[in-house]
Amino acid sequence: MTETESARQPEIALSDEDRRGLYRTILSRRDVRGQFLSDPVPDEVLARVLVAAHYAPSVGFMQPWSFILVRSPEVRARVKAAFEAANAEAAALFPDDQAASYRALKLEGILDAPLNLCITCDRDRAGPVVLGRTHMPEMDLYSTVCAVENLWLAARAEGLGVGWVSIIEPARLQDILGLPDRVVPVAYLCLGKVSHFLAKPELASKGWRQRLALSDLVAMDRWGGDAPDPELARALDDAQAWAEAGG
């Protein structure tokens, strides 16, 4: 076997069973807020979920992420207070009728989940000049979001729920977690075993927003360009119907 051949993965396509499992994981992933159980996450499961995040793609192989595991009740209480302050501000931004619906939503599980996790981005980790980031400096942040998605899908495959707490001032998180100025808190997550996963995204089932039609979001060659040809449009609609049915 040549060196080039030995550097190749043995297979190009996944098996039918693996492919079905991947799509099932993607389609059944949910943003969890109110279904957390108090059971601790086993270390070996947590390690697998974190390694999935660490193996996310990153531009220039910069790997800008770090993972802060938050178990301290005192730290979580401070994060909860920061959320409540931001949530009150957010509610005031909506019209009165929508604000009432907003306040009725449970939007975090900070104290309910057995583990909180902050995924950060160190904007200086790979040095001042990074391959692939020279003209799009925000690629380190986008790369970190890939790690968030990897973790979320791995957690779902392990039967763990994840909830992203985004209604919080980043500066408050930086202070609470002792982050240096160069480190951005990209995602504050609640993680743990759950009683169940909802059949549909909670915001959809409660009428906040519905999923858009994929075929309306695909254009040819440019923004606002021609719609997909009828065959592709039909395939997109069929694929979305398959997804809505659970895959």
UniProtKB/TrEMBL annotation:
Keyword Nucleotide-binding appears in the UniProt entry: yes
UniProt keyword list: Cobalamin biosynthesis, Flavoprotein, FMN, NAD, NADP, Nucleotide-binding, Oxidoreductase
Ranges of residues in domain Nitroreductase: 26-193
Signal peptide (residue range): none
EC id: 1.13.11.79
GO biological process, alphabetically ordered: cobalamin biosynthetic process
Primary enzyme class: oxidoreductase
Protein origin, superkingdom: Bacteria
Entries under SUPFAM superfamilies matching the protein: FMN-dependent nitroreductase-like
GO molecular function: 5,6-dimethylbenzimidazole synthase activity; nucleotide binding; oxidoreductase activity, acting on paired donors, with incorporation or reduction of molecular oxygen
Catalysed reactions listed for this entry: FMNH2 + O2 = dialurate + 5,6-dimethylbenzimidazole + D-erythrose 4-phosphate + H(+)
TM region positions: none
Pfam family, one: Nitroreductase
UniProt similarity note: Belongs to the BluB family.
NCBIfam families from the UniProt entry: BluB
Stored PANTHER family: IODOTYROSINE DEIODINASE 1, NADPH NITROREDUCTASE
SUBUNIT field: Homooctamer.
Protein known as: 5,6-dimethylbenzimidazole synthase
